[in-house]
Design goal:
This protein is an alpha/beta fold. The protein has one domain (3-230): NAD(P)-binding Rossmann-like Domain (Rossmann fold). Helices cover 43% and strands 15% of the residues. The chain has helices at residues 17-28, 40-50, 62-71, 94-122, 143-162, 182-187, 191-197, 206-218; strands at 8-12, 32-37, 53-56, 76-79, 125-130, 168-175, 227-230. Helix 1 (17-28) packs across helix 8, helix 3 runs parallel beside helix 4 and helix 4 runs parallel beside helix 5.
Length: 250
């Protein structure tokens, strides 16, 4: 497939960051892009800038998503919406767990349920699941987030099995640290957050992730780019730590 073979795209989490960059990139290719997010104001600004079609919908609103997917046959589905509440399981609360499962995993499952059968029937489609290196590597304090992203990673593999024999391509994009405002969304709107996660680092931009997604979509029909791990050159995963046993409390 190439961009000329596709006509419509649905992008979630589209109001800022990677989602907005993807909307801008796909609109430049002449696609009819439907942008979904909760923030109506940011979506309206995006629509004026790019010509996309804005839908102020929470991805946990299954009925609203079903109405949209019933009205438009999407050739491209980009599951980008996500949230995080960075806590170890020793400190996790039920509300934190439910929120991450609902947005990061359950919404992706239902959108695939709503969109992928139509792609298979038309013998044409591309699903882009934006996960995280957290789905493949362990680091501290994000247990529920890791679990939801790993679930979407496995879903991406399963979708190719479920649509075997049809020209439905599935790409999992696993970003590392990217220069977006996600850290302020997660840790609070404070200048120190940007200093901690962004300033002074050499990081990929949201547009770099959008360009990588465009590369996967534009590949020939015989090519499925299944997994893309995109990290800063100066970021690595892994490491070995050994702890001393703590004295037991009486």
């Amino acid at each position: 497939m190439s961009f000329s073979d596709y006509r419509t795209a649905l992008v979630t989490g589209a109001s800022s960051g990677i989602g907005a960059a993807v909307v801008e990139r796909l609109c430049r290719e002449g696609l009819e892009v439907h942008a979904v997010a909760r923030s109506a104001g940011a979506l309206d600004a995006l629509a004026k800038r790019t010509g996309c079609i804005a839908h102020a919908i929470d991805v946990t609103d299954r009925a609203a998503l079903a109405r949209l997917c019933g009205e438009v046959a999407f050739d491209i589905l980009i599951n980008n919406a996500g949230v995080d509440r960075p806590k170890k399981f020793l400190e996790a609360e039920d509300g934190d767990i439910d929120l991450l499962v609902d947005v990061n995993l359950r919404a992706v499952l239902h959108l695939c349920r709503l969109v992928v059968p139509g792609m298979a029937a038309r013998d044409r489609g591309h699903v882009i699941n934006i996960t995280s290196i957290a789905g493949n590597y362990n680091f501290g304090g994000n247990s529920t987030y890791h679990a939801t992203k790993a679930g979407v990673a496995m879903l991406s593999n399963q979708l190719r099995i479920d649509t075997f024999g049809r020209r439905v391509r599935v790409t999992e994009v696993c970003p590392g640290r990217v220069a977006t405002d996600i850290f302020n969304h997660v840790h609070g709107d404070d200048p120190s957050i940007r200093e901690r996660f962004i300033d002074g680092f050499e990081l990929p931009q949201a547009s770099d992730i959008a360009d990588a997604i465009a590369f996967a979509i534009a590949a020939p029909v015989a090519v499925n780019i299944g997994h893309m791990e995109i990290t800063p050159t100066l970021q690595v995963m892994g490491g070995l730590q050994t702890a001393r046993p703590q004295e037991r409390q009486p």
